[in-house]
Structure prediction request, 181 residues.
Amino acid sequence: MNKELKNRLEIRKMILASFFIALGIVLPFLTGNVAFLGARFLPMHLPVLFAGIILGWKYGLLVGIITPLLRAVTVGMPPLFPIATVMAFELAAYGFLIGFIYHLLPKKMIFVFVSLILAMIGGRIVWGLAAFLIYPLAGMNFTFELFLAGAFINAVPGIILQLVLIPALFIGLKKADIIKE
Prediction:
């Protein structure tokens, strides 16, 4: 691949990464910026996961770190510390893991689901570890029960949304020949 083509691809990836960051800032408005609904439907997760699987682990990681922090600074939600800080670790893990795992696996549609599920599990583990370390610095308790509630029980609508939307969009864009390996 020549240098000019490589540069064009990188510029395209940067533009798409910017788009996914913007989407991550705007999508939570669909839940009315209500923290309770955001914690259920996880609107910021969708563009990060999509960035990771489309653009690869490097951009997925960056989109994951930047999105919650930039949203906290520009919109005020989630609060920068400790929530957005913990989310930056979580979303960075999502973006990294889905991109990295998908890159390693054969390019069959079943592995879109495998990559997504493993990234969702890994991201929730990173969220739990980050919350366990950072929340006490803000005077907040973080127990195993809070981890289970936040990572799985309360997040069921968002988990279902991710499991339906990410593969459907990805597969649809591949079939339309918009996404190329």
